[in-house]
Amino acid sequence: MKYFSAVFLVFLLIGCKKSDSTTMAVEEKSDTPTQWLNWEGDRDMPHIVLISGDEEYRSEEALPQMAKILSERHGFNCTVLFAQKPDEPGIVDPNYGNNIPGLDQLSSADMMILFTRFRALPDDQMYHIDQFLKDGKPLIALRTSTHAFMFKDTTIESSYKHYGNYYNGDMQDWKDGFGRLVVGEHWISHHGKHADQSTRGIFADGAESHDLLNGIASGDIWGPTDVYGVRLPLPGDATPIVLGQVVERAGVRDDSDPRLGMRPTDTKLPGMVKGKKGAADYNQNDPMMPVAWTKSYQLPQGKKGKCFATTMGAATDLLNEAMRRLLVNAVYWSLDKEVPAKADVSLVGSYNPSRFAFHDDKHWDDKNIVISSLK
Does any domain span residue 140? Predict the structure, then answer.
């Protein structure tokens, strides 16, 4: 009996100690602000890391909604990362271009969805992006990811300045930076009139039967963001899938409206546009610029990988069902999975995206968006 009591006491003490340490771990974890968000899908499905960090097109709103759709409608495991100041962890600050915590999760990710603009991240964060790309894993690049990085400040010590948008250094393979080498183009211009002309997606010749367009009709894709200019033809094996038809606003501009008064029912096309600096007048839709394309990429000393790029994808663009379906189709295609005939892309929860716009730092100080609240 004494032996039993002693053994019971030992087990009780061990149990209490284990319970105390578990409680402490929970408490320590609860004291750490949430710096990224996870959505669990099916155990055997790929892990996708979605990286937000742009000052204008509200990637911090777009990517959580995409993660919800990919996870809850299709079973993918998703992690969304956010720009934030090192001394204010857990608070979204897209104006802060030098910190996106959680990039180490790319080491175990199967796909990266990138939506950043002119970031100058520290070496220990850029390392994970560089390694992911050297491994040749699939990439989806949205809107400003043609100019995802910028190291123009000569005071910044970086081993990754060749990723910068205007890079023109000794590494010739990297001329014009990450955008040109990996995505297919860097920042060139606004081809449509920014905040005044919208984009309608027209199927590129020969792409009509591509799996990326399953469940979509030509003309269904629409967004209030304007068409970006690119150099034609796109480099290497880049293949246009969707062309961007420039469309005029039918109604009046309304800055309180997330779509600025533009509507998917707008049909008027612009006339001739006066060329700049003595250049000839031109028709904005002749030729139309690609707004979605496929491309292989390969970093020097790296493996070959697949990239799907679109210069659309702002938070307000995702109000368009066909745009969401194009992105979901791109995930399946990039991962070499069968693309659904008509993917379920219904919105998850409430989704009321902000209009695209730049905001000063005070706006973000006042807004104080806590990352955990975006779940």
Answer: yes
Residue 60 sits in a domain whose CATH number is 3.40.50
Q: Is the pLDDT of residue 104 over 90?
A: yes
In a domain, 144, yes or no: yes
Residue 14 three-state SS: helix
Residue 161 pLDDT exceeds 90: yes
Is 23's pLDDT higher than 90? no
Instruction: For residues 113 and 288, give the distance between their C-alpha atoms in angstroms, rounded to a whole number.
Output: 25
Write the CA distances from 358 to 67, 95, 173, 227, 318, integer angstroms: 24, 9, 33, 18, 19
- Residue 20 maps to a domain: no
Buried b (16+ CB within 10 A) or exposed e, 110-134: ebbbbbbbbbbbbeebbbbbbbbbe
Task: Report the percent of the chain where pLDDT is more than 70.
Answer: 91
Number of neighbouring beta carbons within 10 Å of residue 85 = 14
Domain span including residue 179? 32-188+289-374
Cα separation, 317 vs 65, whole angstroms: 12
Measured between alpha carbons, how far is 47 from 103 in angstroms, rounded to an integer? Answer: 13
Exposed e or buried b for every residue in 43-65, given b needs 16+ CB within 10 A?
A: eebbbbbbbbbbbbbbbbbbbbb
Residue with tokens 């629409």: 222
Q: How far is CA 343 from CA 39, 50, 216, 217, 346, in A?
A: 19, 20, 10, 14, 9
Tens digit of pLDDT for each residue in 324-356? 999 999 999 999 999 999 999 999 999 999 999
Q: Higher model confidence: residue 82 or residue 20? A: 82
Sign of CA dihedral 350, 38, 70, 106: positive
Residue 155 pLDDT > 90: no
Total domains in the fold of the chain: 1
**Cβ pair 157, 145 in contact under 8 A:** no
**CA distance linking residue 224 with residue 247, whole number of Å:** 9
Q: Is there a domain that residue 10 lies in?
A: no
Whether cis (ω within 30° of 0) applies to the bond prior to 270 is no
3-state secondary structure of 302: coil
Q: Name the band, by pLDDT with cuts 50, 70 and 90, for residue 30.
A: low
For residue 152 the two structure tokens come to 């123009």
